[in-house]
Amino acid sequence: MTREPNVELVLEREGAGFTYFRRHASSLDLRLLLPVFGSLALLSLIIATGFAVAGAWLVLPFAGVEIAALGTAACVILRRAGDFERLAFQGDCILVEVRERGLARQFEFHRGWAQLVTGITGSIALRSHGRTVEIGRYCSEEHRRVLACELRSRLGSKRILRINQAT
Question: Does 2.30.29 match the CATH number of domain 10-24+87-163?
């Protein structure tokens, strides 16, 4: 296993600083989602209108339900598209910024007090003074291990806590 970053995991080293940034994997963005949704909705309406003209008018309400379900799925995809997590070491300060489902949260930890918490499921988190924030949610298990090794070296081996319960 190599410790160098690739396209999936971005680690920037700026002198003594360290930054980790990861976005939620999303294959559709707004520019692509709108034409796809519009063409599927239009196709469904054309087919339903053809059946309604032929006398099967009950197809129209079901086409409306289908378009509403597509719209709901599109909203869920767009809501998750902006999710990210960012972790930055700046001197003795660790800054963590997490955006999930439109809600942004920021955490600040002192490097001397922060603990790295690893779970049996492979999850990793930072903990200090009763506050815990999970990181590495958007990476693969292998990249989470690389991130944990990097954090372990930056925090020191004495501040690592292993949790043996499944969460």
Answer: yes
